[in-house]
Specification:
Pathway: Purine metabolism; IMP biosynthesis via de novo pathway; 5-amino-1-(5-phospho-D-ribosyl)imidazole from N(2)-formyl-N(1)-(5-phospho-D-ribosyl)glycinamide: step 1/2. The chain has about 80 residues and is of the alpha+beta class. The chain has one domain: 2-Layer Sandwich (Mth169, Chain: A), CATH 3.30.1280.10. The chain is built from 2 helices and 3 strands. The longest helix is centred in the N-terminal third of the chain and has 12 residues, at about 15-25. The chain is elongated and about 50 Å long. The termini are close together. The relative contact order is 0.35.
Length: about 80
């Protein structure tokens, strides 16, 4: 079974990488970009029957820093 985990900084947490991308887009002539939030996507190929609880534990313990990041699990 395949899952995709989307990890993003929580609202209100400064995103310096997103700000750098926004600035670079402006420097390249792309106007009208108000803000950019950058995150990461992790695809996992897991044994069939792996529970959502187990996937959540993976996210909580390693894949996301839950102090400043949120995550969303997508089953593929």
């Amino acid at each position: 079974m395949k899952v995709r985990v989307h990890v993003m900084l929580k609202q209100g947490v400064l995103d310096p990488q997103g700000e750098a991308v926004r600035h670079a887009l402006g420097a390249l002539g792309f106007e009208g970009v108000g803000s950019v939030r950058q995150g990461k996507v992790i695809e996992l190929d897991l044994a069939d029957g792996t529970s959502d609880e187990t996937i959540g534990q993976m996210c909580e313990k390693l894949l996301a820093n839950t102090v400043i990041e949120s995550y969303r699990i997508e089953h593929l």
